Amino acid sequence: MKYSASDCLSKCKARFYHEHCGCSPFVYNIDTEFPSCTPLETYECTKQYIVVNKDETSEEFHWPTCEECIVECERWEFNAANSYGNGFSNGALRWLNHYNPEWTTPHIRANFLTINIFFRDMSYTEYKQVQAMSMTELLSDMGGNMGLFWGMSVLTLAESLIYIWKISWIAVSKQRRDYMSEKKKRDEKEERETEETIKSFKQLSAAQLAQIAAAQAQYAADGAPLTPPPKAICRRTI
């Protein structure tokens, strides 16, 4: 038998009735797999295990969840219906009488019947089950949220990993700690020397700076390398 969600639900309810009451109503026991319940047994079992009284005037039916009964991928469903009319129209009676003059109107109404077979709705409903989010969309969503709330990107993540690795290396290696301490001292020393030099140059007057520039230009014209004046001159000038 081809799978259908309605048949699966019927079998699920049939198993529920059989597990609790030892039988199953014939409307759910479509495969006659379980003994059929009598109307009284169906009523008593439903009242005991399915119907839940909310209050004195209302009830609820708690059916089994039947999670295994998923919607089928393709289903064809035809609904049959009957409709009745008042018989043949006047045009149909005239056509039949013209077709056979012996068929009178009373004869036609008493012996003829019209059956129309047609599609009530010239349309169909299609259900599709699609993936809510692809892997690309998931990664894009995660990256967008991280960039929005954390200001994080791939480069930031790589830099964070490198920073954690360096911190861990310093914490584990004594040699690395000593090296970083010496490097910090050298940097501080160079920074102090630079600040002192800048401060000394700021104290020089414009004439002294012009004299130094002229001396450097004279050295360059004579073919000597561009070197600062002798230390004695520098000390006397400063």
UniProtKB/TrEMBL annotation:
The Swiss-Prot or TrEMBL record describes its family as follows:
Belongs to the amiloride-sensitive sodium channel (TC 1.A.6) family.
State the organism of origin.
Pristionchus fissidentatus
Q: What is its subcellular localisation?
A: Membrane
Q: Which UniProt keywords apply?
A: Glycoprotein, Ion channel, Ion transport, Membrane, Sodium, Sodium channel, Sodium transport, Transmembrane, Transmembrane helix, Transport
Full protein name: Ion channel
Q: Which residues cross the membrane?
A: 148-172
What does the record say about its membrane topology? Answer: Multi-pass membrane protein
Please list the GO terms describing molecular function: ligand-gated sodium channel activity
Q: Where is the signal peptide?
A: none
Cellular compartments per GO CC: plasma membrane
